[in-house]
Amino acid sequence: MGRDTPSKVEQFRELLKKVGSGTHTSEALTRAEAAAAMRMMLKQEATPAQIGAFLIAHRIRRPAPEELAGMLDACSKLGPHIAPIASTPVTVFGVPYDGRARTAPVMAVTALLLAAAGVPVLLHGGDRMPTKYGLPQVGIWQGLGVAFATLSLAQVRKVLVETGVGFTYLPVQFPQAAQLVPYRDEIGKRPPLATLELVWSPYDGATRAIVGFVHPPTEGLLRTTLALRGAPALTTVKGLEGSCDLARSRPGIVGVVRADGSCDRLTLHPHDHGLGGSDAPLEAPEIYCAQLRAVLEGKASALTTAAIWNGGFYLWHCGVCTDLETGFAKAEAMLKDGVAAGKCEQVAFACRDAIAS
């Protein structure tokens, strides 16, 4: 006698057949089906062959907003949750998990400047990751003496409360998602999970979502996906290597989507503010981290100018400063006066204290 209830493998096979049946006959999953597929992948209820096939088929067909919304539903259900720390929104930056390979990041400095100005920031990511295997955010913080990778989820929240900076480290706080990382190398392409990560957030309170993107269709996809999940407010940044770091070598393109769905498009010209120039190349990790520490010490360099350009914009965008010029002046002063360096020391101490306690 056959079974009345299909196994998880059989259930996943039916979902795989929908997305992987070819250019003319493949179909988008419903939101509920996408959530079920993501849940079975996270829980390893699908076989490795099925997971790999799903990820590459989904990349070829390109995910629909409803599918990404469903996959986010599953991540929200199975992933980590950080309880609200205050009524004030936490700014959550969505940066590609596979890191940076060509240009030097200044996101850590931006986070420190914002936190020192009273804007709490939450970041998330993992280790070096396919397909780029670029420098990950956690490695940058480690180079600054901040041990985010060793914190439990409760300790992440404690540090976020005390310092205004938090980091959710995938292998520790969301190991189910970390188990899917090797598939990226095996299929040789970024799967839709790489898009999903840009708008995923472990924070349960009010957030200000800021995400980087490279290709214009991705921006629209992210906007619609978050709107489906009841969180239409979003800032999109066409940044360096898909990050939220504005380039100095070209105009910055920023989209600001408000809660009512209306959108402003900002084009920011660094040369108009005396901050244009070549983007600092990414050196070997030990050299780069020394350069980043020099930025925090207020020493002049191309990377310091990039930090002022980015820090000033985000100080204005997050409501700390009334205009861009004030934002740039404040970012420069905070670096020269050691405010950002002091915040970095506070975060490093809070991590050590959380671990010790």
Please describe what this structure looks like:
This protein has two domains: 9-78, Transferase, Pyrimidine Nucleoside Phosphorylase, Chain A, domain 3; 90-350, Nucleoside phosphorylase/phosphoribosyltransferase catalytic domain (Pyrimidine Nucleoside Phosphorylase, Chain A, domain 2, 3-Layer(aba) Sandwich). The protein has a seven-stranded mixed β-sheet, with helices on both faces. Strand 1 (90-94), helix 5 and strand 2 form a beta-alpha-beta unit. With 357 residues, it is of the alpha/beta class. Helix 5 (107-116) packs across helix 16 (339-356) and helix 7 (153-163) runs antiparallel to helix 16 (339-356). Helices cover 49% and strands 11% of the residues. It has 16 helices and seven strands. InterPro entries: Anthranilate_Pribosyl_Tfrase, Glycosyl_Trfase_fam3, Glycosyl_Trfase_fam3_N_dom, Glycosyl_Trfase_fam3_N_dom_sf, Nuc_phospho_transferase. This is Anthranilate phosphoribosyltransferase. It holds the Pfam family Glycos_trans_3N.
